[in-house]
Amino acid sequence: MRRYALLSLVLIVVALTGCTVLTEREPPALPTFTAQPPSALPPLQASTGGLADAVSLLDGTCFEYLYSLSGATLVWVTADDQSAFYDAADASGMCASPAARPAFDFSAQIVAGTVSAATGCDAAHHLVALEQDDAARRVTLRLTLEVRPGCPYELVEPFLVALPRPPAGHAVEVVVSGH
Predict the structure, then answer these.
(1) How far out from the chain centre does Cα 21 lie?
(2) In the chain, where are the structural domains located?
């Protein structure tokens, strides 16, 4: 009987030692991946063709409101036009907080542009031409929209520039191609 007790004791010690050995092992190392995410690419940059970039006037205007303006032409000839834009953003109920209202000097310039919505990793507008047609009494901003594909992100890409004040009676239009 003593022999069975000693054998049982040895088996218990071996079993406990084996369990301890198993729990003290390091888990196997998992492989690591070094794929470059799309965000590692340099961001696309808008090109304004030498016109003053005024897109900062939209800072503080929420994504949802800008998204709702996709395809719209924005033209601000006076400070009242600019203020009306911010008032509409605030009244839309889409934004959690009131739009910022940065100042702009309209004495010799106006502000014109558009907002484009797209799906991709990044997007940027490029000014192709600024045309003035005196016979049609129109100033046209011709833009292309470059979209970097490969991501499922909803993008809002505003384009806003300061233009020399056009002759009286000239309408301003924005034409976007490429998306």
Answers:
(1) 53
(2) 43-177
Distance CA 95, CA 100 (A): 11
DSSP letter (8 states) at residue 98? P
Residue entry with tokens 């045309």: 131
Burial class (CB in 10 A: 0-12, 13-18, 19+), 37: exposed
What is the token pair recorded at 111?
A: 């502000």
Cα 177 to Cα 59, 61, 66, 71, 121: the distances in Å are 24, 25, 19, 11, 18
Given a cut of 60, whether residue 49 has pLDDT beyond it is yes
Q: Flag whether the pTM goes above 0.70.
A: yes
What is the C-alpha to C-alpha distance for residues 47 and 126, in angstroms, rounded to an integer?
Answer: 5
